[in-house]
Write a structure and sequence with these properties.
The complex is a heterotetramer of chains A (276), B (344), C (527) and D (535). With 276 residues, chain A is an all-alpha fold. In chain A, 72% of the residues lie in helices and 0% in strands. Chain A has a single domain, classed as MetI-like fold (Orthogonal Bundle), CATH 1.10.3720. Chain B is mainly α. The two termini of chain B are 44 Å apart. Chain C is an alpha+beta fold and 527 residues long. Chain C is built from 15 helices and 19 strands. In chain C, strands 1, 8, 9, 10, 11, 12, 13, 16 and 17 form a 9-stranded mixed β-sheet that branches. Chain D has 535 residues and is α/β, with parallel strands linked by helices. Chain D contains 22 helices and 20 strands. The chains are: A mainly alpha (276), B mainly alpha (344), C alpha+beta (527), D alpha/beta (535). Chain C: Belongs to the bacterial solute-binding protein 5 family. Chain C: Keywords: Signal. Chain C: It is found in: Periplasm.
C-alpha cells in the first residue's frame, strides 16, 4: 500500500508480533507438539521439555493449547472483523455518498443498533441461537459493523465533498463506481487502521464472551477460554495461568502498534505547512 | 463488555464523533437545539424499546413451562400464561408494557414476583456509583495524560504514556481484575477482593471495598480516552491559529491549554461519554469477578431465567443511559463551540 | 447437588428441588443409619461464643426468595436454615432427630397416620409462640393445586393435616408409609407463623433476618431465645453471594469470608497448601455420570455401552477433574460406603482393546454424540474432551457437542441420548435405584425399563432378611454394571473450604453440603 | 542609509536536503516597508517567519544570520525567542479566518501577546486595541472586540489581525499575504487600512505577497524571489521602471493581454432564464438570473465571494437543481438536476474546478484519469484509447512521460492542465471553468488562460467562466455578467460592460482591481467618494 510512513522500531515490534500470531494460527498443526486436549502431565506442571510452557488446569500442554487457540482466535476474530467491514463499510460509504434521507435512515438505524446494549444483545442472541462458530462470528460481526459504519461513513463523507468525486458524478458514473474507484482507494489507510483496531477489539470481545461462557466450543478453545480455564491459578501465582492473558494483551498491543504506525501524522505540532 | 470500542487517534473517529452530525445549521438557538436532541433521543429510545421487546419475545423456552418445570401440567401452564397475560397478542402486550414503563412501572419479575423497578433501583445505584467513582479517577487522569503526551510529543514521556495506556486497554478486563486480586488481596492483604456493598456500609469502607473493581475499570477506559485526547489535541495543534499563538511568543503549555484544548473539546467529550456509557452498561464481567451487586449481574441472572420483563427493563434502562449520555455530550460540545453558542 | 454455576448458566429449579426431596426421603430411610466418615478439621474443640461469621456461597440468584417453597440451591438452603426450623432434622449420624418436634410416632399400625408432638416454649422471631396451627399452616403451604412449592412432591400422599392439640399435629396419609417423617426434614418444610408471609423470613431459626438482598447478601443476627442451647454460637451471620469460584477462593484467602462452598477439586491442593485454610469434605456425596438412553440407537446395543464403559479412562478423569479427591466409579450407582455396595464386582478400568472389541461387536456404529455443558456436572466439558481422546485411541469417535448451560436440564437432559448428569448420593440403595432406574421414575435418565428389575427392587423394599436383601441389591448392581446405560466414572466429595478459625463443622450424610446446610448454627469462630 | 532594523545575510533554509531559501540577504531600515514578492515555492513566507526566529516543521535554518537591531535572532534561546515574538516582531497571517482561534473573543486574542509580555496593563491594552480598531476602520471599535472570529467578515478579521500585530508597539511586522484571501473590493479597503496604519505607527514591515501590483502599493522597496533565490531587489520605482531581470519584467508586464472583442453574438448554446436556486429551502442564493452563452464564446461571470457565481455554475452542471426558471442547452430544454440528464448531455457539459488538487483523484495516474471519460463516453479501448490520450496530452502541452504520474507528482499548473484535458476528453460543447486560475501563481495562470483561449479557437468549445478577477475577464470574455448578492447587476458584451457609464457596484469593482503601477492605491482611495464602509 502506498504512502505508509517509514518503519519505526515500535512498528517493527508490532508487525513481528502480528506476523508471529498469524504464523501460529496458520501452521498450528505443525507447530503444536500435542493435540489440543491430550493430557500430558499433572495440573499446572512447571514448564518442561515436553510442555514448553507447562501444563494447564487439567494437565494439557499449554503451549499446544495456545497454538491451537491462536488459530481459533484468529479465525473468529478475522472472520467477524471481515464481515463487519463488508457490511459497515459498504453501508457507511453508501450512506455518505447518497447523503439525504438514505443517509439519515441508515445513520439513525445505526444509532439504534449502537443504543442497544452490547451485552444484552449478545446474551439474548447467543441464548436464542445454537452456540456455534457461525452464530458467534455473526453476532460479533453485527456488533462491530455498527462502529465500522460510523467511522467509514465519516471517512467517506469527507471525500464525497471533494471535487474529483463531483466530477465523477457529473460524468454520470454509477454509485458503485464512485464508491469503489473514487472513494475506497483514498479511504484505504484510515480504513486499514480501523481494521486493525476492530480486529484487536474482536479479540478482546471474543475473549470476554468466552469468559462469560458464551464463546468458543470445545475441544477447541480460544485464548479467552484459556484464561478462563486457568484463572484459578492466577490467585496462586501459577506461571501457566498468566500466559494466555499475557498473550492476548501482547497481541492487542502489537496490533495497536501497527495501527499507530499506519496512522502516524506527518502534520506537525507547529502548524500545517502552507505554500511559501 | 469486551472493553470499550478501541478506535484510538483516528481523525475520522474524531469527525465521526463530532456533535450534531450533518445538521450544523446555525441560527437555531441552544434551547431549540437541546429540545431537538431530547426529542431525537426519545424517538431513539422508543425505537430501542421496540427492538428490545421484539428481541425478548424470541427468547427460547416458554416462560410458563420453565417456571413450572416438571410440574408443568397443561392447565397449570395455561393459568400461568393467563396470569402473566401471555395469552394476549404481542402488540397489545407491547403497548401495555410501554405504557407502564413510561410511568416507571416495569411490572413484576416472572421468577420472583418482585417489583422490578424496586429491585433494579439499588442495583442501578450501585452500578452508577461504581461508574462515577471510576470516571472521577479516569477522566481527569486520561485527559491530563493526553495533554502531557502532547506537551512532550515525541519524547520518551509521550512514548511511555502511550505504551502504558496501550497496555492497559490491551489487558482483557477479567484478566486484569484477577491480577489485581491476586496481588492486592491474596499476595498482600491490602485491599478486599470482593466488593459486596450494602447501604448499611459506611461510605469510607464502601469506597475501600470498591477500589479494586474501580481500578480495573479505570484501566479499561483510561487508554481509549487518553489516546483520543491526544489525537484530538494533535489534530488541533496542526491548525494555523496555533502557529499564531506560537508567534505571539506564548509558552508551550499555554498554547496547548488555552488555544488547543478548547477546540479539541468536542471529540474528547464524546469519547468520554462513550466510555462512561461503557462503564455503566458494560461492566458485568467486573461485577462478577468482584462480586459487586450491580445491574449487570442482575440482568444476567434474569436473562438466564428467561425473566423477560426484567431483561426488557434493564435493556431499556441501559439504552436510556447510553442515549442520555450522548445527548449530554452533544450539548457540552455545542456549548464548547462558539459558532453554535453565538450564532452570527 | 453440585451444579457449577457460570454466570451465563441457569440452574433449573424443578429438577433439583425434587431430587433434593427424593434425597431426603431416602436419607430418612436410613433409619438404620450409618455414620459417614467426614474430614472436618476442627470438630472436637469446645464452642466459642460470639463473632461475625461470613459465608461466601455459590448459586445465589437475584431472583431468590425467602419463602422456603422456592428454595432451589445451596445458597438459599443455608440462608433458610438460619431463619427456619423444620419439624425434624437429619442428625450428624444420618438419623432423624427432633427439631421443633420432641417426639413423633405412627398413630396407626399401617403407618397411614402420624402424630408429631411439638416442643413447648419455642418462639418465632416476632415473639409469637410456636403452636400446632403454625405447623399445619406451614405444611399446607406446600399442598394444593396452586402451590408450586418444591416441597409439593413430598406431601402428595398427605390427605389431611390437623392440629389435634395446641402442640400436637396429626397427619393423615392416603396410604401407609413408614418413611413419611423424613419428608418433614426437607429444606422446603421450614415452619413459619400461622397466616404469615414466608417471604418475610420469620421463623423459629437460630438467626433473625436483618437484611436480605436477593443474589447479593443476607445478614442475620443471633436469635437470643433460640430453643437449641447447644447451637448458634456466633452473634451474626453474613451470607454473601459469590458465583465466581475464583472470587470465592480469593475472598477466603484474603480473609474476607470464613467459609466458601463449591471448591474446584483442581484448586484443592493449592488451596489446602495455603496456611490457615481447612477443607470441609463431605465424602462421595455426588455421582458424576454420562447416562446413555438404552432405548435410542446406537446406545440400545449393550456392546456399544460396554465399549464406551471401557473406553473411558477413569483414573485420568479422577486425576484431572478431581485431582485425586473423590473415588472412581464402576458404573454402579451405589457408593462404596453403602452397606449394600457389591464389593465383589471387579473395578472396570480403561481398556482400549476391550473397548475396540465390543465396539466392533456392536458394528462400529457412528454418530455417537455426547452433549455436555458444565451444568451436567462441573468439569463435564473437560471430562467429555478427555473421554473423547481416550475413546479415539480405541477407534471410537465421540462427537462432543457443547450445549448451552442455559436450559440444559430442560432441553438436553432426558432428551438427548448421551449426556452428562449428576446425582447427590442417597444413603440407601433403594432410594438411589428407585430414583433413577425404576421404569416409571420421572428421572429415569437411561430409559432403563426392566420389569424384573422393578420387581426385585420392590421386593427388596419389604424384604426383612438382610442377606436376601443384600443378595437382591447385589444382583441389581451387577445388572446395571454389565448392561445398564449409566456410565458412572466418578464419585465426588463435596468440597468446601474454611479459615482455620472456623470450628464446629460436622458432615451430615445425605444432608448435603456444609453440615446439611446448617453450618451457620453449628460453626463457631476460634479467636 | 538610515539605521538598519533587520539585517539578513546569506540566509539559508533547508527542508531535508532540499534548499528552500538559498543565500538570501537583505536589510530593512526602520520605518520602511520591504515587499517580498514571488510565486509559491519562492521561499518568501519562510523568510518572513525566519525573521521571527521561527521555521515551520521540517525546515531548518542552516546558515546565515538575521539580526534585529544588531542582535542575532536565529540562535536565541527558546526563552529569548519567546520574548522576541509578539513583542518586538509580530505576524499577520494569510487567512485571518483560520489564524484566529475560534474559541476566544477577538479582543482577548488581540491583546494576549501584549499582556503576556507585560508590555501594558489590561486596561491600557484594551484601550490601545480599540484605538487600533478605529484606526483600521473597523465598525463599532468600542465593542468590535467582543465578537468571536466567526462573527466577523474576512476583511474585518484581516484588520483585526493587523491590530493584533500592532498592539504591542512592535518594531517589525511581518505581513504574510494579508489580502490574498480577500475579494478585490475588500482587498483595497484592507490594503488602504494597513498602509495607513503602518504610516501612522511608523512601524517597519515585511510585506509578503505573490501579487506585485498589491505589493507595489504598500512597499517602499521590493525583493523579488524565485525558487528560494533573490532575483532582484530595488525600490518600487526601480522595479517598475527599470527592471533588470527578465523574470521581473514578466511580472511587471503581466495582466496586459486582452481578448479582441467580437462585435456580434453567436447563436445561443446555453440560455439561462429566471433561475432561482438555493441550498436551504426559502433562502434563495440565486434570484432571477437570466444569461445567454453563444456557441464557441466565453461568458464570464464575475463577482465577489457570496455573489452566487459558483452556485450558478452548480445549477448549470445540475449538481444543484434550480427551484425555478429554465435552462436550455443546444436548443433543448436542460433537465433540472443531475439524475434527469442524459449521458449525452452530461458529456456535453464538463467542468474545470478551482483547485486542481481537489479535482484529481490522488490514487489515479494521469493515464487513468484521462482514459476514464474516453472509455465511459466513447467506449474507447486499447490503441485507440492510447492514441486519444496522447493527443489530449499534446493539446495541453504536456509530455507523454506524464502518463504514469500521480497528481502528487505534478505541479499546480500541470494538474490544472490535466483537469482541462479530462474535460476535453468528453469532447463537450460547454466547459464550465470555476475560477480555474485563482489558485495558481500569476504566470502559471496566464499559461492556463492562453491554453483555454487556444483550445477555444481550435475546437470551438464554449466557456462559462466563473471568476472574481476583472483582469481575467478582459483576457478571456466575450460576454460578461456582473453578479452581486445572487443577482445579475450588469450583463452584456464585454465592451459595454467594462466601459462607463457604470452602475455603482461595477464601478467599485473596476476601481478596486489593483493596477500594475505604484501609487494606484492612493489615487483609488482619493477617488472614492464615501467614507470607508466596513467591509
Amino acid at each position: 500500500m502506498k504512502n505508509l510512513p517509514p518503519l519505526t522500531p515500535m512498528a517493527l515490534i508490532g508487525l513481528v508480533g502480528v506476523a508471529a500470531f498469524i504464523v501460529l494460527a496458520a501452521f498450528a498443526p505443525w507447530l503444536a507438539p500435542h493435540p489440543v486436549s491430550e493430557v500430558v502431565g499433572g495440573v499446572w506442571d512447571v514448564p518442561s521439555a515436553d510442555a514448553l510452557l507447562g501444563t494447564d488446569n487439567i494437565g494439557r500442554d499449554l503451549f499446544s493449547r495456545l497454538v491451537w487457540g491462536a488459530r481459533v482466535t484468529f479465525v473468529i476474530a478475522a472472520l467477524s472483523t471481515a464481515i463487519a467491514f463488508l457490511i459497515g463499510v459498504s453501508l457507511g460509504f453508501y450512506a455518505a455518498v447518497r447523503r439525504g434521507w438514505i443517509d439519515q435512515i441508515l445513520s439513525r438505524l445505526n444509532d439504534l443498533m449502537m443504543a442497544i446494549p452490547t451485552l444484552i444483545f449478545a446474551l439474548v442472541v447467543l441464548a436464542v441461537l445454537p452456540k456455534n462458530m457461525v452464530v458467534l462470528v455473526l453476532v460479533m460481526a453485527t456488533l462491530e459493523a455498527t462502529r465500522v459504519f460510523r467511522v467509514s461513513r465519516a471517512i467517506a463523507a469527507d471525500l464525497v465533498g471533494l471535487d474529483y468525486v463531483e466530477v465523477a458524478r457529473l460524468r454520470g458514473e454509477s454509485w458503485s463506481w464512485i464508491i469503489v474507484r473514487e472513494i475506497l482507494p483514498n479511504a484505504l489507510s484510515p480504513l486499514l487502521a480501523e481494521l486493525g483496531l476492530r480486529f484487536a477489539f474482536a479479540i478482546l470481545f471474543l475473549s470476554t464472551l468466552s469468559f462469560l461462557g458464551l464463546g468458543v466450543q470445545p475441544p477447541i478453545a480460544d485464548w479467552g477460554s484459556l484464561v478462563k480455564e486457568n484463572k484459578d491459578g492466577l490467585l496462586f501465582g501459577i506461571f501457566a495461568a498468566l500466559i494466555p492473558g499475557a498473550a492476548i494483551a501482547a497481541l492487542v498491543i502489537c496490533v495497536n502498534l501497527v495501527v499507530d504506525w499506519i496512522l502516524r501524522k506527518t502534520t506537525s505540532l507547529k502548524g500545517a505547512r502552507r505554500n511559501g | 463488555m469486551g472493553g470499550p470500542p478501541l478506535a484510538d487517534g483516528i481523525d475520522t473517529e474524531i469527525q465521526a464523533m463530532s456533535p450534531l452530525p450533518a445538521q450544523k445549521t446555525s441560527g437555531n438557538s441552544l434551547w431549540s437545539l437541546l429540545v431537538k436532541r431530547l426529542l431525537l433521543g426519545l424517538l431513539l429510545l422508543w425505537a430501542v424499546s421496540l427492538v428490545i421487546f421484539a428481541g425478548t419475545q424470541i427468547l427460547p423456552g416458554d416462560v410458563a413451562t420453565s417456571m413450572l418445570g416438571q410440574q408443568a401440567t397443561p392447565e397449570a401452564v395455561a393459568s400461568i400464561r393467563k396470569e402473566l397475560g401471555l395469552e394476549q397478542p404481542a402488540p397489545i402486550r407491547y403497548v401495555k408494557w410501554l405504557g407502564a414503563a413510561v410511568t416507571g412501572d416495569f411490572g413484576r419479575s416472572y421468577s420472583n414476583r418482585q417489583d422490578i423497578a424496586k429491585s433494579i433501583a439499588p442495583r442501578l445505584k450501585n452500578t452508577l456509583l461504581l461508574a462515577a467513582m471510576a470516571a472521577v479517577i479516569a477522566v481527569p487522569l486520561s485527559i491530563l495524560l493526553g495533554i502531557l503526551s502532547v506537551l512532550y510529543n515525541g519524547t520518551w514521556v509521550d512514548r511511555t504514556i502511550g505504551l502504558v495506556t496501550l497496555s492497559a486497554i490491551s489487558l482483557p478486563e477479567f484478566f486484569a481484575g484477577y491480577l489485581l486480586i491476586a496481588y492486592f488481596s491474596v499476595a498482600h492483604f491490602w485491599l478486599p477482593s470482593s466488593a459486596t456493598v450494602s447501604d448499611a456500609m459506611p461510605i469510607g469502607q464502601r469506597l475501600v471495598v470498591m477500589l479494586l473493581p474501580c481500578l480495573t475499570l479505570v484501566l479499561a477506559v483510561l487508554g481509549h480516552m487518553m489516546r483520543m485526547t491526544r489525537a484530538a489535541l494533535l489534530n488541533v495543534m496542526a491548525s494555523p491559529y496555533i502557529e499564531t499563538a506560537l508567534l505571539k511568543g506564548l509558552p508551550w503549555w499555554r498554547i496547548v491549554w488555552k488555544h488547543a484544548l478548547p477546540n479539541a473539546l468536542s471529540p474528547i467529550v464524546n469519547v468520554v461519554a462513550l466510555n462512561l456509557a461503557y462503564l455503566i452498561v458494560g461492566v458485568v464481567v467486573v461485577e462478577v469477578i468482584f462480586v459487586y451487586p450491580g445491574m449487570g449481574q442482575y440482568l444476567v441472572d434474569h436473562v438466564a431465567k428467561r425473566d423477560v420483563p426484567v431483561v426488557q427493563a434493564a435493556g431499556l434502562v441501559f439504552a436510556a443511559v447510553y442515549i442520555l449520555l450522548n445527548i449530554v455530550a452533544d450539548m457540552v460540545s455545542v456549548l464548547a463551540n462558539p459558532r453554535l453558542r453565538h450564532p452570527r | 447437588m453440585p451444579s457449577h454455576k457460570t454466570i451465563s448458566n441457569i440452574l433449573q429449579p424443578t429438577r433439583r428441588q425434587l431430587l433434593q426431596n427424593a434425597g431426603l426421603l431416602s436419607a430418612a430411610l436410613s433409619a438404620g443409619g450409618l455414620m459417614l466418615p467426614g474430614s472436618a478439621g476442627a470438630q472436637a474443640a469446645t464452642p466459642v461464643k460470639g463473632g461475625h461469621l461470613i459465608l461466601g456461597l455459590d448459586t445465589a440468584s437475584s431472583s431468590d426468595r425467602l419463602d422456603p417453597a422456592f428454595y432451589t440451591e445451596a445458597y438459599m438452603y443455608t440462608v433458610g436454615f438460619q431463619l427456619f426450623n423444620t419439624v425434624l432434622e437429619l442428625g450428624p449420624d444420618g438419623k432423624l432427630i427432633g427439631a421443633l418436634a420432641e417426639s413423633w410416632e405412627a398413630a396407626t399400625p399401617d403407618a397411614s397416620k402420624w402424630v408429631f408432638k411439638l416442643k413447648k416454649g419455642i418462639q418465632f422471631h416476632n415473639g409469637k409462640e410456636l403452636v400446632a396451627q403454625d405447623v399445619v399452616y406451614s405444611l399446607n403451604h406446600h399442598r394444593g393445586e396452586k402451590s408450586s412449592s418444591g416441597g409439593k412432591g413430598q406431601l402428595l400422599a398427605v390427605t389431611d393435616i390437623q392440629a389435634t392439640d395446641t402442640h400436637e399435629v396429626t397427619v393423615t396419609l392416603s396410604a401407609g408409609n413408614a418413611d413419611f417423617p423424613a419428608a418433614l426434614v426437607d429444606y422446603h418444610m421450614g415452619i413459619g407463623p400461622d397466616g404469615g408471609d414466608f417471604d418475610k423470613g420469620i421463623g423459629t431459626g437460630a438467626f433473625i433476618l436483618e437484611d436480605f438482598q436477593p443474589g447479593v447478601r443476607a445478614l442475620t443476627k443471633r436469635n437470643p431465645n433460640y430453643w437449641a442451647s447447644d447451637r448458634a454460637h456466633v452473634d451474626s451471620v453474613e451470607t454473601i453471594a459469590m458465583s465466581d469460584a475464583t472470587a470465592r477462593m480469593a475472598a477466603l484467602l484474603s480473609g474476607q469470608v470464613h467459609i466458601i462452598n463449591r471448591v474446584e477439586p483442581r484448586a484443592l491442593n493449592l488451596l489446602s497448601s495455603r496456611p490457615g485454610v481447612q477443607i470441609l469434605r463431605s465424602q462421595e456425596n455426588t455421582m458424576f455420570c454420562f447416562p446413555m438412553r438404552v432405548d435410542a440407537a446406537p446406545y440400545d446395543n449393550v456392546d456399544l455401552r460396554l465399549a464406551l464403559k471401557y473406553a473411558i479412562d477413569r483414573e485420568e478423569l479422577q486425576k484431572s477433574l478431581l485431582v485425586g479427591t473423590g473415588a472412581i466409579g464402576n458404573d454402579n450407582p451405589i457408593a462404596s460406603w453403602n452397606p449394600y455396595f457389591a464389593k465383589d464386582i471387579p473395578q472396570r478400568a480403561y481398556d482400549a482393546d476391550k473397548a475396540a472389541f465390543h465396539f466392533k461387536k456392536a458394528g462400529s456404529p457412528g454418530g455417537i454424540q455426547l452433549s455436555v455443558s458444565d451444568n451436567g456436572f462441573p468439569g463435564s466439558v473437560d471430562a467429555a474432551q478427555l473421554f473423547q481422546a481416550s475413546a479415539a485411541k480405541a477407534g471410537i469417535t465421540i462427537d462432543v457437542e457443547r450445549v448451552p448451560s442455559d436450559g440444559y436440564w430442560d432441553e438436553v437432559w432426558l432428551k438427548k441420548p448421551f449426556v452428562a448428569s449428576n446425582w447427590s448420593v442417597r444413603p440407601t440403595a433403594d432410594a438411589m435405584l428407585s430414583l433413577i432406574f425404576q421404569s416409571e421414575a420421572p428421572w429415569n435418565e437411561t430409559a432403563w425399563r426392566d420389569e424384573a428389575f422393578d420387581k426385585l427392587l420392590a421386593a427388596a423394599r419389604v424384604e426383612l432378611d438382610e442377606t436376601k436383601r443384600k443378595q437382591i441389591y447385589h444382583d441389581l448392581q451387577v445388572k446395571l454394571v454389565d448392561e445398564g446405560g449409566e456410565l458412572i466414572p466418578l464419585f465426588v466429595d463435596n468440597l468446601a473450604a474454611a479459615s482455620e478459625k472456623v470450628g464446629g463443622y460436622v458432615p451430615v450424610p445425605g444432608g448435603g453440603d456444609l453440615s446439611g446446610y446448617r453450618i451457620a448454627e453449628r460453626a463457631w469462630l476460634n479467636a | 542609509m538610515a539605521d538598519i532594523l533587520l539585517k539578513v545575510t546569506d540566509l539559508e533554509i533547508k527542508a531535508g536536503d532540499a534548499t528552500i531559501v538559498d543565500k538570501v540577504s537583505f536589510d530593512l531600515q526602520k520605518g520602511r516597508v520591504l515587499g517580498l514578492i514571488g510565486e509559491s515555492g519562492a521561499g518568501k513566507s519562510t523568510i518572513g517567519l525566519a525573521s521571527l526566529g521561527h521555521s515551520r516543521d521540517g525546515l531548518q535554518i542552516t546558515g546565515g544570520q538575521a539580526e534585529l537591531n544588531g542582535r542575532d535572532i536565529l540562535h536565541l534561546s527558546k526563552r529569548d525567542t519567546r520574548l522576541l515574538r509578539g513583542a518586538a516582531v509580530t505576524y499577520v497571517a494569510q487567512s485571518a479566518a483560520a489564524a484566529f482561534n475560534p474559541a476566544h473573543r477577538l479582543i482577548d486574542q488581540v491583546i494576549e501577546a501584549t499582556l503576556w509580555h507585560g508590555l501594558m496593563s489590561r486596561a491600557m491594552a484594551i484601550e490601545r486595541a480599540k484605538e487600533l480598531f478605529a484606526l483600521l476602520g473597523l465598525p463599532d471599535p468600542e465593542n468590535f472586540g467582543d465578537r468571536y472570529p466567526h462573527q466577523g467578515s474576512g476583511g474585518q478579521l484581516q484588520r483585526a489581525m493587523t491590530a493584533m500585530a500592532l498592539c504591542p508597539h512592535p518594531e517589525l511586522i511581518v505581513f504574510d499575504e494579508p489580502t490574498t484571501a480577500l475579494d478585490v473590493t475588500t482587498q483595497i479597503e484592507v490594503l488602504a487600512a494597513i498602509k495607513q496604519a503602518i504610516a501612522k505607527t511608523g512601524t517597519s514591515a515585511l510585506y509578503i505577497s505573490h501579487d506585485l501590483a498589491v505589493v507595489a502599493q504598500v512597499a517602499d522597496d521590493i525583493l523579488v524571489l524565485r525558487n528560494g533565490r533573490m532575483v532582484e531587489r530595488g525600490s518600487v520605482d526601480d522595479i517598475f521602471n527599470a527592471p533588470r531581470e527578465d523574470y521581473t519584467r514578466q511580472l511587471v508586464s503581466m495582466r496586459q493581454s486582452e481578448k479582441p472583442a467580437r462585435e456580434q453574438a453567436r447563436d445561443s448554446l446555453l440560455s439561462i432564464k429566471g433561475i432561482e436556486a438555493g441550498y436551504i429551502p426559502g433562502i434563495p442564493v440565486l434570484q432571477d438570473v437570466s444569461l445567454d452563452l453563444g456557441r464557441g464564446e466565453t461568458l464570464a461571470v464575475v463577482g465577489e465571494s457570496g455573489s452566487g457565481k459558483s452556485t450558478l455554475a452548480r445549477v448549470v452542471t445540475g449538481l444543484l437543481p434550480a427551484s425555478s426558471g429554465t435552462l436550455s442547452f443546444d436548443g433543448k430544454e436542460l433537465a433540472n438536476g443531475l439524475a434527469a440528464r442524459t449521458p449525452e448531455t452530461l458529456r456535453n457539459i464538463q467542468i474545470v474546478n478551482q483547485i486542481p488538487d481537489l479535482a484529481l483523484n490522488p490514487r489515479q495516474t494521469v493515464e487513468a484519469i484521462l482514459s476514464r471519460p474516453l472509455a465511459f463516453y466513447f467506449g474507447l479501448k486499447g490503441a485507440a484509447l492510447q492514441s486519444r490520450v496522447a493527443t489530449l496530452l499534446d493539446q495541453i502541452e504536456l509530455p507523454h512521460s506524464m502518463l504514469g504520474r500521480y497528481p502528487a507528482e505534478l505541479s499546480g499548473g500541470q494538474k490544472q492542465r490535466i483537469c482541462i484535458a479530462r474535460a476535453l476528453a468528453a469532447d463537450p460543447k460547454l466547459i464550465i471553468c470555476d475560477e480555474p486560475t485563482s489558485a495558481l501563481d500569476p504566470l502559471v495562470a496566464e499559461g492556463i488562460l492562453d491554453l483555454l483561449m487556444r483550445l477555444q479557437a481550435e475546437v470551438g468549445t464554449s466557456y462559462l467562466f466563473i471568476t472574481h478577477d476583472l483582469a481575467i475577464v478582459r483576457a478571456i470574455a466575450d460576454t460578461v455578467a456582473v453578479m452581486l448578492g445572487g443577482k445579475v447587476v450588469r450583463y452584456g458584451r464585454k465592451a459595454e460592460v467594462l466601459a462607463p457609464p457604470f452602475d455603482p457596484y461595477t464601478e467599485k469593482l473596476v476601481a478596486s482591481v489593483p493596477e500594475m503601477r505604484p501609487g494606484w492605491l492612493d489615487e483609488a482611495i482619493a477617488r472614492r467618494p464615501s467614507p470607508r464602509r466596513s467591509s
